[in-house]
Input
Amino acid sequence: MRLLTRGVVSRALAAACCLAPAAPFARQAAQAGEEDTQRIAAFRKLANDAYAREEVEAGNLHLRDMIESYPGRWDIASPALLAILHASRNGPEEWQEYAATRVIAGYRAGKMLRTDPALRDAWRTLITLLGYQERFLQARAEIEASRPEPPSSKTKRITRSWRPMPSRT
Output
């Protein structure tokens, strides 16, 4: 069941503030306008209330609606996706896959660094989930993508050129 009212969305957003660190939400509030700040706070309150009642589905719906209300705003989406990922650890696989794939997409779009702990959690969750679902080829592709990139041949040549030359005596 999808909740379309603003009240439901606001409740979902509210739930996220309890699960995610306060600092990302503080940054997002500083970047948004006053109206957006109030809407984001309302979403967080709704989501927090839903999570407090152990209604993970409703909390996740509120956060998803918040993300969809602000397309292209990674500063809002990132903490909400992380909250969904953490709230759904023992919950529905659909929400785990939803949050993990979007965090990884944010990395691939250049919105986060490879060293971000949220990315590590998302890859771990997605690879584990794909393994449980016996989607092994897709899991292997994600494992390959999660590995650090090998240095290029140019980097190897530069590294070699800086090594001291052996003495010939």
About this structure: Residues 6-160 form one domain. Confidence is low (pLDDT under 50) at residues 1-23.
